[in-house]
Every structure is written in structure tokens, then in C-alpha cells.
């Protein structure tokens, strides 16, 4: 067993940012990583995925993108290299291929059991990610045996799919990207869309992230929203990491030949049943988009910004007038279902009374309990807390707190 002041679990962007901030404050620590650095980016992303944020927004404490294409979007090999370079530059004390088995209370600190050795620490930072487990609804059990079911973690590319059509459930960023990629190969694709948020890639000549960054939307704090629980569940924007594609929305997918249906409501006797609320969801999505664009226009006007194109408004979502309400999954037409229905963290090894009735980690701005912190979750302290660009500020706050309260357990 080894004793140390602070343990960080996870060597992705959140864990590495925390390591850098602790090193700056001379806090002894170790980073435990179940795989290699940037493990989730290496092993749990499909091949063609790119970041949804432009390269100029790829920023961590003391480290930022400095390449020749600031307005481009990093592919997975590039983000893996970026994080690897960051770990080397900050000399992060990472113990790779070390799986955490359990975390339990140990006096005023915590005991961390791994498959290599046990540790005891005063402070523990959980930076293991927000997207460890795919949210697959219980109705997946009713999918016929002859239909292959995949999550985005299991999907790598269209070439792995069985012959036949593909039903994709979920129309946020992941769902629309997979629908477009698979349809481009000529396969029949059906997309089941519930709540979603439509958004242009560019607005008035600037990337939408430039607007949200400049207008302070991404830096909005938990104290500035009425319902933080709701804010943490907001779907990801319908965007793709490509400067060439203005929209990857229902209109674009329909033009590509994707069949759009409503929210998957159930599966009975091999027949998928879809809600008739598609038009309502699309109208609400357009309303949210237009409200945001109007707010951005107001911000631009108060700043008297120059060089912007005129105010834009976009045609509403063109929903099918009579969307299909059911689909037979037993007739062989659709041979694959992909569940693009969101993700959740995996904290099963955290054996502490820090969860609510739905097994969600309870925290206030990342502070869970005495000496216990979490980083990298949606809207942790600010709207961008789960983004590479936002985790640094949260890591600074945690490191400041640890530095102020250091001394409960000698390293």
C-alpha cells in the first residue's frame, strides 16, 4: 500500500489538466489510468469522428493547439497525439494500465484498490469521464434476435454492419453523424428523432462556437440557470466537425435519403412503434435555435462588432407530413439497430454514499465530499465543463481547494 496526498482517476483531458494544476501548486499526486493516456479517445470512438469544436478551442492549462489549421477539427489520432504531447510536456505522473477496483473511505481520506496495488490518499479527483456507458433503453430487450444491436462504442464504420437497413435511435450529434455516414454508403437508414437541438455550423460568417464562446454562453455558471438538473441533460447540438457542412439536421438527412420517424416509443412482437410527436419536437428545436441566434445578434449589436455578415434566419425543419409510425424488425429489411441514446459515467467502483436514487453522483460544482472531487461532467461548474476547452478552469478550482486544505494526510 502506498500513501500520497492526491490521486486522480483518469488520464484524459480532465485528469491531465488536474495533474498540471496540482504540479503548479507542488501537490504530490499520481494519475491512475485503466488503459493508455487518452484511452477513451483511443478505444471508444468510431473511426471517422472529429471534434465538434474547432482547433483554436482545443485548450488546456498551459497548452493549446498551435498548428496550421485553427479553424479545422481534430480527428481521433490528432486528439490522442495532442493529449499525449500534453502529458509529456507537464511530466504527468501517470500509471497506465492500472484499473481501479474500488474506492472506500479510510479515516479522513480514501483507499483506492487497483489491480496492481492499493493506495491511500487525502484527496481524490474522479476524472474518469462522462461518457463511459452507453444509455441503452430497456425496450432494447424486445429487439428480435436476428437484428444486430450496437452502441456508438461498438460502431467503428459502415463496413462492419450486416447487410440490410439500419435503424438509428437518437438524433443528437452522434445519431445524425452516424446516419449521414451510413447512408452515404447506399444503405437504407431510418432515424428515430425525439428531443434534439438544430444548429448551423456557421452563423454570419463565423463558427457557431466562436459566437457561443464570445457571447459568454459557454462560460455560463450553474448559478445562472434555473434548473441545473435539466441543463445537464440538454442534448448535444446537431453539429459535425466539418467546415464544409452548414447543417447536419433533419432537412439535410432527408435530402440524403434518410427516413425520419418520431421517438421510439416501444417494440411489440418485433414491431418498432414510433411516437407521433415528431413535428412538435422539430418545431421546438427550431424555436430553440432561433432564440439562440437572436440572443447572439443582440450580443453582437451591443459590441458593435465589424466584419460580420448580415443577420440570417433559416427555413424551418421540413418534417414528413405523415411520418411512419411503425417498422417491422422481423422482415429482414432492417438488420441493425444503433442506440445513439446518450451516455453516462461509470462510477461503479466508487463505494461511498455519494449518489442519489438514480445512482447519479451528487456534487456541487464538482465538490462531492470532504477531499472528494469530480471533473469532466456536463455543466459541472460552467456550461463548457465537459469540453476540452472548459475543463481547465474547473481543474484550477479543484487544485486551489486542495492546496488550501493540504495536510490532512502526509504524503
How many β strands by DSSP? 24
Q: Quickly give the structural class.
A: alpha/beta
| Shape verdict | globular
What distance lies between the first and last C-alpha atoms, to the nearest angstrom? 12 Å
The percent range for helix content is 25-40%
* Most strands sheet: 8 strands, mixed
Give an overview of the whole structure:
By secondary structure, the protein is α/β, with parallel strands linked by helices. It has two domains: 2-132 and 345-405, FAD/NAD(P)-binding domain (3-Layer(bba) Sandwich), CATH 3.50.50; 135-339, no CATH class. It is built from nine helices and 24 strands. Strands 1, 2, 5, 6, 7, 8, 23 and 24 form an eight-stranded mixed sheet that branches. The longest helix is centred in the last third of the chain and has 26 residues, at 278-303. The two termini are 12 Å apart.
Task: Describe what is shown at a glance.
By secondary structure, the chain is of the alpha/beta class. It contains 9 helices and 24 strands.
Q: What order do the helices and strands come in, and which of them pair?
A:
Elements: E1 2-9, H1 13-24, E2 29-32, H2 39-43, E3 59-60, E4 63-64, H3 76-89, E5 94-95, E6 100-106, E7 109-114, E8 118-126, E9 133-134, E10 148-150, E11 165-169, H4 173-183, E12 189-192, E13 197-198, E14 202-203, E15 206-207, H5 208-214, H6 228-231, E16 237-238, H7 250-256, E17 259-261, E18 264-268, E19 271-274, H8 278-303, E20 326-328, E21 334-339, E22 343-344, E23 367-369, E24 372-374, H9 388-405
Parallel strand pairs: 1-2, 1-8, 2-5, 8-24, 10-21, 11-12, 11-21, 12-17, 13-16
Antiparallel strand pairs: 3-4, 6-7, 7-8, 9-22, 14-15, 18-19, 19-20, 23-24
